[in-house]
Design brief:
Layout lengths: L8 E7 L3 H12 L4 E5 L22 H14 L3 E4 L2 E7 L2 E6 L4 E9 L3 E4 L6 H4 L4 E2 L2 H4 L8 E4 L5 H8 L6 E5 L5 H9 L3 E4 L2 E7 L2 E7 L4 E3 L2 E4 L2 E4 L2 H5 L23 E3 L10 H31 L1
Parallel strand pairs: 1-2, 1-6, 2-3, 6-17, 8-15, 9-10, 9-15, 10-11
Antiparallel strand pairs: 4-5, 5-6, 7-16, 12-13, 13-14
Helix pairs in contact: 1-2, 1-8
Protein name: Thioredoxin reductase
Keywords: Flavoprotein, Oxidoreductase
Organism: Actinomadura algeriensis
């Protein structure tokens, strides 16, 4: 790896500058560690106008949270580098992270908080409205569409659960599914007043920049004001796979309860490790990881000092 920056080594490199990465950087910089956050500028919630469920920040635009977080981290001496990571390697004394522009950063410990990419069904209109009227989490966005017409689009084994959950915010819920639910699922949906529509989605209809319905393959249109679905979440795990971290069958990295991966010195926090986590839980997980990283560095420093004395 060639270097545009000097070979000076940070104590902690954090890949990912969202709520998880910035929360960890805040804790570590306040612990007087040399910390660098690498941020690609591609947050998962970029299309969402507001975030919810974060005490004292409810309704805040996600970009504003990131801006405040960056200012706080820098206030304690933390460094933030804008750039995309191309490759991550282990070195004799830690890790090297190569950026797309040729810059190489080096650190003793590595925390990956790169999140996930949401893959949506191939239905025209869904991607364009994602983060607006098309959502996945009612705890984050259910209040904003309360008592409106809501369609839940079946995308996987948790879709019945999602349809049942949505009924807490609206009693006008239609569940669009390719095959009619049977047995207990059918009974539970009926008990909550969910209308089951057996068909395939064709496209989302939009008028005056608002969702008005979901057109089906059979020609019918189900009127709605919002659509909820479960996307396929794909981990942005490149830095972790580069280093040979052990992965679960679902493609997400294996960690201990505090985010330590199978590779010593490498932690993961936020949605890259727990895809269903909300903003506040991703930040909280990263705070735990940051504390353990700091203690891990302290133990290494103790060992080095004891070895020097012997």
């Amino acid at each position: 790896m060639s270097e545009h920056l000097g070979s000076d080594q940070r104590e902690v490199l954090i890949i990912g500058g969202g709520p998880a990465g910035l929360s960890a950087a805040l804790v570590l910089s306040r612990a007087r560690r040399r910390v660098t956050v690498v941020d690609s500028g591609e947050p998962r919630n970029a299309t969402a106008a507001h975030m919810h469920g974060f005490l004292s920040r409810d309704g805040m635009p996600p970009e504003e949270l990131r801006k405040i977080g960056r200012t706080e981290v820098r206030g304690y001496g933390g460094e933030i580098v804008d750039g995309a990571v191309e490759r991550t390697e282990r070195t004799a004394d830690g890790f090297a992270v190569a950026l797309r522009d040729g810059t190489v950063l080096r650190g003793r410990r590595l925390l990956v908080t790169t999140g996930v990419v949401d893959e949506l069904p191939d239905v025209p209109g869904l991607r364009e409205r994602w983060g607006r009227e098309v959502q996945m989490c009612p705890y984050c966005h259910g209040w904003e569409v309360r008592d409106q017409k809501i369609v839940v689009l079946a995308t996987g084994p948790m879709s019945v659960h999602q349809a049942l959950l949505i009924t807490q915010w609206s009693k006008d819920v239609a569940f669009v599914v390719a095959e009619a639910p049977e047995g207990a699922d059918a009974e539970r949906l009926a008990a909550r007043g969910v209308t089951v529509v057996v068909d395939e989605p064709a496209r989302l209809t939009v008028e005056s920049d608002r969702v008005t319905g979901l057109e089906l393959a059979g020609g019918e249109t189900v009127a709605c004001d919002a659509v909820f679905l479960g996307p396929r979440m794909v981990a942005r795990s490149g830095p972790l796979t580069d280093l040979g971290c052990e992965m679960n069958d679902d493609g997400f990295v294996k960690t201990d309860p505090f985010g330590l991966t199978s590779v010593p010195g490498v932690w993961a926090a936020g949605n890259v490790a727990k895809p269903a986590g909300q903003v506040i839980t991703a930040a909280a997980d990263a705070v735990w990881s940051a504390g353990l990283i700091n203690m891990d560095l302290i133990e290494e420093e103790i060992e080095r000092e004891l070895a020097a004395r012997s």
